[in-house]
Specification:
The protein has helices at about 1-10, 15-20, 25-40, 50-55, 100-105, 125-130, 140-150, 165-170, and strands at about 45, 65, 90-95, 115, 135, 155. It is α/β, with parallel strands linked by helices. The protein has a 4-stranded parallel sheet with strand order 5-4-3-6. Helix 1 (about 1-10) crosses helix 3 (about 25-40).
C-alpha cells in the first residue's frame, strides 16, 4: 500500500506532502526508484481504474485490482460509544501524520469536542499544540466501531489521501 501511495504522490497528487517532508524536489527520482522496485514484485495493487491508467502511463507493470470495502458486520451503527465529552463530537480516524492535514481540523473553532483516533509521528506535537483535543491513540475492531458510531461528525481533513477507506468506515457506522 505504501508503494501505491508513493506512486500516486509522484504522479502529481500529494506533491505538497513530499515538499513538506523536504523531498518534493526529488519526485521524478523517487518515481523511478519505485518503478524499478515494483517491477520486481509479483504485482502492484491498485484501487481504481484511474490509478491503474496513471501508473501504467508512468511505466508501472503487473498492476492488479484491489477493491475497497468495509466489513459491515463489524462496522455498523447499532453500538455507539458514549464518551463523556461535550457534544457535538467531531471524530477523525487514521495515521497521525502530516499528509492527513489534521492541523486544519484541530485549528478550527468548533463547539463540542475534537477527537483523534490513531497513532503516528505527529501525535506528540499535535497533543502539545492542541491540548483541547482528545487523542485516544490506536483503537481497533469493536471499540473503533463504537467510537465512530458515537460521533456526531466524522472528519476527513486530508487533501492528499487516495484510498480513504476510513470514509467508508464512517459511512458504515452511521
Amino acid at each position: 500500500l505504501i508503494y501505491v501511495w508513493l506512486a500516486r504522490v509522484t504522479a502529481g497528487f500529494g506533491t505538497p506532502a513530499l515538499a513538506a517532508l523536504g523531498i518534493g524536489h526529488k519526485v521524478e527520482g523517487v518515481s523511478y526508484m519505485i518503478c524499478v522496485g515494483l517491477a520486481l514484485a509479483a504485482g502492484t495493487m491498485v484501487g481504481t481504474a484511474s490509478l491503474r491508467r496513471e501508473l501504467s502511463a508512468r511505466g508501472f507493470t503487473n498492476l492488479r485490482s484491489w477493491t475497497r470495502g468495509v466489513d459491515t458486520e463489524l462496522f455498523r451503527p447499532d453500538r455507539p460509544a458514549s464518551l463523556d465529552l461535550p457534544r457535538p463530537l467531531f471524530i477523525t480516524v487514521g495515521r497521525v501524520a502530516i499528509e492527513k492535514n489534521l492541523e486544519a481540523f484541530l485549528s478550527l473553532d468548533l463547539p463540542g469536542s475534537k477527537v483523534v483516533i490513531g497513532e503516528g509521528p505527529q501525535r506528540a506535537r499535535l497533543q502539545r499544540e492542541y491540548p483541547q483535543a482528545v487523542f485516544l491513540g490506536e483503537r481497533t475492531n469493536g471499540e473503533l466501531t463504537s467510537l465512530v458510531a458515537g460521533a456526531d461528525v466524522f472528519v476527513f481533513p486530508s487533501l492528499t489521501d487516495t484510498v480513504g477507506v476510513v470514509q467508508l468506515v464512517g459511512l458504515a457506522c452511521r
